[in-house]
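User: My collaborator and I are trying to settle a disagreement about how two of our proteins should look. Neither of us wants to argue from intuition anymore, so we agreed to look at predicted structures for both before our next call. Could you fold the first one, then the second, and keep them clearly separated?

Assistant: That sounds like a sensible way to settle it. I'll keep them separate. The first protein:
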Amino acid sequence: MHILFLSDNFPPEVNAPASRTFEHAREWAKAGYRVTIITCAPNFPKGQVFAGYRNRLWQSEQMEGIRVIRVWTYITANEGFIRRILDYISFMVSATLAAPFVGKVDVVVGTSPQFFTACAAYLVSRMKRIPFVFELRDMWPESIKAVGAMNDSLAIRMLERIEMFLYRKADVIVSVTHSFKRKLTERGINGEKIHVVTNGVDLSRFTPTLRDESLAGDLGIAGCFVAGYIGTHGMAHGLDTLLDTAEIFQSEGRSNVRFLFLGDGARKADLVRDAQRRKLRNVVFVDSVPKAEVVRYWSLLDVSIIHLRDIDLFSTVIPSKMFESMGMGIPLLHGVPGESAGIVEREGVGIVFPSGNARALHAALASLNTDAPRYNQLRENCLGAAPNYDRRGLAGTMLNIMSAIHARHTGRTLSSPQRPAQ
C-alpha cells in the first residue's frame, strides 16, 4: 500500500502536527509501506525558511524511508488571520497540483488543524479515485472563533459549510480525541467512520534524561526548581497566567523557583514585553530550537505546565506535549479542563488546576517544590503511564484503519495488516 499524506507542517519543524505526521510515517515506512509526504518548505512559526531549504515549486528528499516532496507556498509568520489563510490556500493549491505526479497511490490523508489541507486531500482522492482519510486534529474553524481571531460572519459560515462537506465526504475520519468524535456525531456525521487515534510520545527520544547542567548554567537556572512551558505561544494558550504566577513567586522572594518558556508564536513578543514591564527576574524566554535539541531543554524541567484559555472548546483537546512530559518522567501542572485533565487524573501524573487561575497554579507548583514524596510518586506514575501512549502502537492502529479502508475500496479480503514493531 502506498500512502500519500498531505501536511503543511513537517520536520525540521518541531510543532505537534509535524512531529505526529513524521513519527507515524516513519513507523509505516519501517513496516514496509510506501509513504510520500507532500508539504512545504519548513518555516513555522516565524515565516522564515529554514537554512538549507528554499521556497521552490518542487523539491524532493528522503527522510528515514519517507519520500518528502516540498512545494511552493505563500509564506508568512504564524500571526495575522488573512495572511495565514493565504498561506493555507496556497498550500492547498500547490499540493493538489503536485499530487498527480506521485504515482500509484492507494490512500490519501489530509491533516488539520486548518482544513484547507483536507480540501486538497479530497480533490486528490477524486482525481486518483482512492479513499480519502481526514485526520482531525482541531475543530477548525470553531477554534478561531473561540480565541477571538474572527467573529461569526458570512466568511465563518462559509468555512463551516466546507468543514461539514469534508466530514461527509471523508471515507474515514481519524480524530485525535474522543471528544471530537462525540461532537461530530452530534452534528450528524456517521460515528462508524470516525476512529480515535490519540496523540502520543516517541519513547525512543523522550526518556528520563539527566539535567544538562551546562545549559542550565547558560540560562541562569542552575540549582533552581524549574517549571517549564514548551510549545507554541499563541492566542489560545493564555500564558499570561504563567506570568501572573511567576509574579506571585517573585513577590514572596522565592528565587529558587524559575519559569522557562521555550517556543514562538503570535503572542511571544507581547509576553516578553509584559515580563520586562513587570521586571520578572524569575522568567527565561528561549526561541524555538531544532528538533534534535528539544530534549536538552526538557531535561531542565522539574515540572511541565500545560495550559489553555478557559474556553469550552478546549475541553475537547489533548495537548500532545503532555505525553512528552510523561515520557521524560516530568510531573504535569495541567490547566486544561475536560478529556486531557481526565487522563492526568486517571494516570496520576500531575496536578490539575483551573485554567486562568494563577493562585491555583502557584499553590500546585509550591506543593511540588516542597513535597518530595508526592513529587517522586508523580514522577514514577509518569514513567509507568507513558508506554500506554507509545507512538509506535498508535501508528500501527492508524495503519490498520487505512489498510481496512483500502481493502474495502479494492474489494479485497483484508488480511492482518503488518504493524510497526512494538
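The second protein, kept apart from the first:
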Amino acid sequence: MRILTFGVCIVALLFPASAIPAAQSSATITGRVIDGGTQAPIAGARVTLLPARMARTAGPMGGPPAQAVTGDDGMYTFSGVPEGQYRVQVQKIGFAPPTDTPLVQVGAGQALAGPDLRLTRGGAISGRVLDARGEPMAEVMVTAVRKPTGGSGRGRGAFGMPGGQPGQTNDIGEFRISGLPAGDYYVAASPRPMIPLGQSSPSPSGGTTLVATYYPGTSTMAGAQVVTVAAGQTIGNLEFAMLSAVGYSITGVVVDETNKLVGGAMVMVMPTLPVGLGPGGSARTLPDGTFRINGVTPGAYRLNASVPVTFSTGGGTVAGSGGGAVTWSSGGIGGGSVSYSSGPSSMLQVTVGDADVTGVTLVVRKPSVQ
C-alpha cells in the first residue's frame, strides 16, 4: 500500500488537478494557405496565432506566439488553443503580406475550421550597389520604401514605410528585394549597422562615413527615382553607388531616476524618416555612464536608451532588454538641436548639423523584475 500511495503522489505532482480541465477545454484550429491567383496550396508558409489583445499567456515574458508551418497540402494546425479571440497572420518569402488579418473566436474544446489564408505572389527589385570607385559593395542592406502618399502628412502611407523582404548585397554587390505588393517604391541602401561591443562606433568624429543612399544616387528621398512594381513583376538591373558624408559625434550620459549613472546601457540613434533604414549608430555606456556615438551624419534622429535586465526562471538566469525606455532627456550643446518630452514612451529628438552634439543626458526607468 505504501508503494501505491507513493505512485499516486507522483502522478499528482506531475499532473496537477488544475491542469487537467485546461487541457480538456483547449481547442484545435485547422485551415490552409493557398495562392490567391491559382488557388494552389502553398507549402512552407509560416502561420502565426496572436491573441487579439496581445495578452500574455505563457512564461515570465509572455512567451512567443504560437506558430505553424504548412505542409505540401497547404494545411496548418494549432492544438491546445485556450478559449479567446485570436488574429491569424501568414508569411512566405516571395509572397506579398496580406492586407488584413482574420479574427477567430475560439470556444472551449472546439475543433474549429480556421480561415483560408490567401497569398499573392509579390514583385521584386534587383540590382547592384557599388562604392565611389565603382567596386561592388558587400553586406549592404537594401530596402524598398513605399512612396509617401503626401497630403496632410497623416495616414500610414505618408511616412515611407518599408515593403517586402529587404535584401543584403552579396560579394559582388548584387541584391534582390522580394515579396513586394504592387506599388511605387524608392530603393535605399544602408550601411551595415555596427554591433556596439564597445563604447562607441569606430568612425572618428569629423571623418567621412557612408550614408543611406537612394537610387539612382542621392542622399534624400526628394531626389530619388520612383520604381513602379506590378503584381508578381521583377524590376532588375538597378545600379547605384553609395554616398558618404562627414560624420559627427553625439556624446552624453545615461542615468536612472535617482540620477545614478548607468553603465552598460544600450543607446541607439535611429533616423526619424524614413522608417526602417536601420540605426544611425549605437553604443554601450561605460561604467561611469558616459557614451559616445561617432559617424552620425547631418539629419534628424531619435535617441533612445535601454537597460539590459536579468531575471530568474527557476532553472537559471536569462538576460534581456526591457523597460528601459527613456522617460526624460535633456542637454544637447552645439551642432544641432535637442528636444524632449516626459512620459514612459518619450524619445529624445536630435538634429545633427555641422558639429558634434554634446552634453546629452538620457534618463531611464529601470524595470522591476519579479
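Some points you might bring to the call about the second protein. Helices lie at 2-14, 19-25. The chain has a mean pLDDT of 77.
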